[in-house]
Amino acid sequence: MTEISDVNLWPRVRDGDPEAFAQLFDRHGARVHAYALRRTADPGAADDVTALVFLEVWRRRREVELHQPSALPWLFGVAGNVIRRWHRTRRRHHDALDRLTGLPAPSPALVEHQAEAAAEAASVLEQIRRLPRRERDVLMLSVWEGLSHTEIAVALGVPVGTVKSRLARARDRLDPTRRPAIRASDPRHEVAATPVAALADIAVKEIP
To answer: Which residue, 3, 4, 50, 92, could crosslink 8 as a Cys pair with Cβ 3.0–4.6 Å?
Structure first.
């Protein structure tokens, strides 16, 4: 049987149907949690953020008209607001991004390369941390969440053109002349080097 889209499920959620709400959570809870984990680098905080996102969705269900086939972009937008409140309260944004540089347990064969990759990754993440919040938000939704420009626009409540311009500015700030090139030519090293290497390049792939 074909699964109904979120836009068709949403009227039942708005009417207070707990089964429909549970279905919405089952579809998207894991993605929201993963997004929160990437933004906070704290599993406990990610749990709290996810719970607060769906509490907010339930509280506001009668106020929201869903027009997209998927509710996920809107859920990411709600999650972004919750996470910003979390960061304002905790004042741990810098530490959270630093923890994203954590590497697997070192082995004799990889320890030297991992140390170099960790230093380079920390440098890139420091550049990302210094981006204006609006540019950082679109970069993370594009690269780590894989949203299209249109979906990012829905998540952040801005025009698609604004998304493209913010990504372009992020690319300019993170261009190769100012960010280290993290290499992963040896597949054994990819776990340490690949995730950060092409952030700016991937984020702007749709921009003409």
So the answer is: 4
Q: Out of 1.10.3720.10, 2.30.42.10, 1.10.1740.10, 3.40.50.1400, select the CATH number for domain 1-99.
A: 1.10.1740.10
pLDDT higher than threshold 90 for residue 130: no
140-157 per-position pLDDT tens digit: 888 777 788 888 888 888
Residue 198 main-chain phi, psi, to 5 deg:
-115, 30
As a whole number of angstroms, the distance between CA 184 and CA 196 comes to 11
Q: Which residues contact 121 (CB under 8 A, 6 or more apart)?
A: 100, 101, 182, 192, 193, 195, 196
**All structural domains of the chain with their residue ranges:** 1-99, 105-208
Closest CA to 15 of 53, 54, 62, 72: 62
Q: Is the pLDDT of residue 199 over 90?
A: no
Residue 188 DSSP symbol: G
pLDDT single digits (tens) 86-118 = 877 766 445 544 555 554 555 655 566 666 666
